[in-house]
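tmp note - Iron complex transport system substrate-binding protein
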Amino acid sequence: MLMKKTTLLFGLFLVLLLAACGANGTGDSETSDSTDSAQTADPTEEATENDATQTVTDGKDREVTIPKNPESVVALTEIGEVMGLGVQPTASIGYYLDKFNPEKVEGIENVGQDQANLEQLVALAPDLIIIPSYMEPTQVDSLEKIAPTYATKFKSTPLERMEGLATILDKQDEFAQWKEEYATKVEETKEAIAPYVEEGDSALVVQFYDKLIYQHAPTVFSALYDNGVGFQVPEGAEAITDTQSISEEVVADYAANTDFLFILTQNPEDNDRYQQLIDTVWADIPAVQNGKAFLVPNERWNDYSISGMQWTLEDLPKVLAGEKVE
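out:
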């Protein structure tokens, strides 16, 4: 969810302690032995090590060396993308795990609800940790002491992030298969919503969050637009590239020539606010007057991920049919 980025703050004590213990446990004789060993290293062993790793540029524009075929992958954010490639993450953050049906994420360890527990990660001894590009450098440094990290670029689209993961995990075939299955789901959804939607209809999405109203770039809801069922982006909204708060009156202006209005809500107070608005400021919005304004689940639609795209397609026919979606 864009307005509640998981901060993923990490405690440093354990890592620093482990690092200190490792340093103090190395005597002069050990240093000498390791030096001799390095000077007589087997070239075959070095070649094998190089074959097992790859150096890539990640979403933080870092050159990172990571394993080619990691057996244990911790995905702190991109759970759906990793699972979509046929890789079962070893662990993730509870905030993201809770969005899935429990059976879907069975076996994935919860390493903290909003903050990753560093001690748990150390115990898991992962081969690779996938992180978001907005993570602070000090947090990344802590994780690097546990395992190599690869950052996905937060502002890239879910499909772009998934493609990048497919490349480093050598899952290009799985990515191609996922895209085919997604395209099939799009066509099925188009057929399901055909009784409610006409070709060329436009749709506006806004979010109620913390007493404010937000509008996001259309790419956040790509399952509704060009990478999905084909709603048109309302005039003026296509220029939005970053999340911004907008007034109730501006929503009315944007929606003046819009066929559908989707409002992301997350609590009863949001629903009450919507009822007040459609009786006042939003009363003349065509979508409101025509019964084409709908409340939709914030946690699912606003995830800005492959999973969010899939959930939008799953929910849309039910929403348009007037069914409650949670």
